[in-house]
Every structure is written in structure tokens, then in C-alpha cells.
Amino acid sequence: MNRFMVMVGRDLRLALRQGSDAAVAVMFFVLCVVLFPFGVGPEPNILARIAAGVIWVGALLASLLSLERLFLADYEDGSLELLSLTRLPLEAAVLAKTLAHWLVTGAPLIAAAPLLAVLLNMDSAGFGALILALAIGTPLLSLIGAIGAALTLGARRGGVLMSLLILPLYVPALIFGAGAVDAALHGLSPRPHLLLLAGMLAAALPLAPLASAAALKQSMS
Amino acid sequence: MDADADAFTGTDLACLRGSRMVFVGLDFALRPGGALLLLGPNGSGKSSLLRLMAGLLRPFRGDMTWRGVSLKAEPDALRGHVHYVGHADAVKPVLTATENLRFWAAMDGNADPEAAARQALADLGVPHIADTPGRFLSAGQKRRLNLARVLAAPAPLWLLDEPTVALDKAGVKLLEGVIDAHRKAGGMVALSTHADIALPGATELHLDDFTPAADEDEDDA
Which residues of B touch A13 (CB under 8 A)? Predict the structure, then answer.
């Protein structure tokens, strides 16, 4: 546990020193969502109807964008090999890196989302569901994305390949994440959607690090 | 090969990289206080053998035993007992030398990583870089920082892949002293080099003796 926290602390420190990675993800998220009113026109009713979906798609893309580099720096400078030789299992190291990554890039998305919801004229009835769904959903996105980042490590144009691999896997999170908000907007309970999201998170929490670590071992040999 | 209870041995090792057999039928034995000097021309498999020993590669054939435990049966038996220094220095540009070292010392289970990091830097003759960020270090300083990592937390087995690269003469002298102290304390060292380095009583292993006959990869021609 101690080593796990050391790992999280080191990645947080690295992310905060570099700064840009975290900021880029949020800026991308905001810009991506803000583009929609320009494209579909400023009709408030249309914007309100598509708000939940647009915010979720923006969150997916922002998460994908930043996850691409999750293991890259450690892979290139040899740290990853050394990590695999320490007593901390590689699966735990992956989980620690994903957690640190989510704290600096996923959590700010949750904070930015209500602002964007206002911008898109979403009814305030959906705010609670949106924040809750993102709070459960973004860690799920990070965990699934980590598998893609590990699989495409060392591949040429890994980022594009990763999008192709991972975006289809994001679809269930998108459906239930946006569904939760829609349900709340229509006066229904978002609970079933949120429970399904939470179920997926509970499954991904042990399984995704296993898959990522296996992929990392493959890419290191 | 006698099965020494506290030795590190390899029997009939073969290594396959891509479609090429790098070496076959290689045996080695390292006892506490012993040193193994890997010699051979470029491409003869010195780095591959060290990566094999570290567990970063799986042998194509053969097995290794660590203190009587077969690494084929227990691939994690070496975890935490080995320090590997490869070609990449694993230095994070935004962290200071001490922060870089402190992380590895903590991951290797040192209770006081800060003091260990500063001591290790002093032992390698670079106490003045303690608070310098990694991006301002020269190649030789980065190498010394990477070598300081093996001092910052004790481990019985050191695997050093061309540790003298980028080191000046004084640096090589310091390294010889450090290795000597490690062996006197019962440690084991395996290192590959093209430069002259004094390893009294080391077993020399000429990797080109184990290169398979050329006709085995005639289809490459």
C-alpha cells in the first residue's frame, strides 16, 4: 500500500510540474463542447436536448486524448522496466498511474461539466445526475483507456490506433452516462443508469489493470 | 552445475530475438561476492542476457535458479532482489536528482529514502546535483544518478548493462569501488562492458562462444 501511494505521489508530482497535460485535457473538453452551438445553431431547445450527449462525447474524447501518453514517458526513459522489477506488482503500478492520471485530468472534467451544461441551456434538474454520472464514468474511461494506452505502446501512430481500439469500448459508458442525465431531465430516476455505470466501474477496477499490465509486459519484451 | 542454495545460476539458456537466435546453450553461475563480466562484439547478446537475468525477457529455452528457486516456476522470485541498469537512465526531467532517487529508494522499500538518496549521490561523487532538475543534467551526471539508484536501496543482485558509458575516468574509479564494496558485502554483479573496468576475480563470459552456427538462420540471407 505504501509503495502504491509513493507511485501515485510521484505521478501527481510529475503531472503538476509539467502542468500542461492536465490543462490541455480540460481546455479540449471545453472547446469541443463549445463548438456544438456554432455547428447546430443557437436554438436553445435543440441545445438543451443534446447537452447531455455532447458533454459526454466531449468527456470521452478529452479522456482519450490525455490517456494516450499515460505510459509513454515511462516507457521511453526506461522507468517502466524498472517499475516491473520492484516489489509493487505491475497491476498495482498501473492502477496507481491511472488513479493519478484521473485525479489530474478526469476530476477537472467533472468540475467543468456543470458550467458547460449551463452554456448549453440544460435544465438544472439534470445537473446532479450529470455530475454523479461523470464522477462514476470518468474513472471507468481512464481504466479502459489505460488498456488501450498499454496495448499501443511502442506502436507507430499509437494514438490513432488507440482511438480505434478504445472508442468502441467507451460506448456502454456513453449510453448509460448520457442516459442517466436524460432520465433525470424527464423526471425519471437516474438510479438504474448510475448503478449500471457503477457496476461497470466495479468490474473494470480489477480487470482493466490486469489487462493493461499484461499488455505492458508484452510491449517490454 | 551444483545447485548452490544462495547462488544465481542459469542452465542451457537460449535467447530468441525476432527470428534470430542470439545465443544457445549458455550456462552461468554467480555466487555471493562473485562477479560475471560479459564480453563480446555488438549484437552478441550481452544486453539480452542481462535482460533475461532481470526477468525482462523470457528465455527461449533453459532455466535460471535464484537461491535454489526455479525462475521458470516462480517468475517473481527475483522481484525486489535485483537492480538493473540499462541503456536508458530513467531520469525524469522535471524532478530534481534527489526526487528521482527518492522515488526509487522508496519503491525498493527504503525506510528513509531522502537520506539514502543524498548519501548515494555523495557516494558517486555528485552531491552538488542533488537539487538540480533532471533536464539540466549532462549524460554523465544522468548515468551517475542512475547508478546511485542501485546504492539508494540494497539488493543482492546488480545487473549493469555497459555502466561505464558516458562516465569519465574518475566515475569509472568510483564505480569500481562501489562494486567492490558491494561484492565484499556478499553481493553479486553481472556487467557488460567494452571499456576497461577492474573486476578482480570476475568470471569472464564470452557471449560470441554461444552464437549458434550460421546455417541456422540462412533464410535471413
Answer: 95, 99
Answer whether residue B219 shows pLDDT above 60. Answer: no
* Interatomic CA distance for residues B131 and B118, integer angstroms: 10
In angstroms, the first-to-last Cα distance of chain B is 37
Q: How far apart are CA B183 and CA B166, in angstroms?
A: 24
- For residue A166, name the pLDDT band (cuts at 50, 70, 90): very high
Burial of B150 (0-12, 13-18, 19+ CB in 10 A): buried
Longest alpha-carbon distance in chain B: 56
Share of chain B above pLDDT 70, in %: 95
Q: B95 and A86: CB-CB below 8 Å?
A: no
**For the segment B151-192, what is each residue's pLDDT rounded down to a tens digit?**
998 899 999 999 998 889 898 999 999 999 999 999 999 999
Amino acid at the residue B73? A
Neighbours of B220 (CB within 10 A): 9
What distance in Å separates the CA atoms of residue B49 and residue B43, rounded to the nearest whole number? 11
ipTM, two decimals, is 0.86
Q: How many CB atoms lie within 10 A of CB B140?
A: 15
Contact B56 A3 (CB under 8 A): no
Q: Nearest CA to B34 among B194, B189, B218, B192?
A: B189
Four-residue CA torsion sign, B211, B214, B219, B221: positive
pLDDT in tens, A35-53: 999 998 888 889 998 999 9
Q: If residue A134 lies in a helix (H) or strand (E), which one and from where to where? A: helix A127-151
- According to the model, what pLDDT value does residue B1 have? 46
Residues of A in contact with B80 (CB under 8 A): 85-87
Q: Which of A116, A106, A93 is nearest to A145 (CA)?
A: A106
* A78/B99 CB distance under 8 A: no
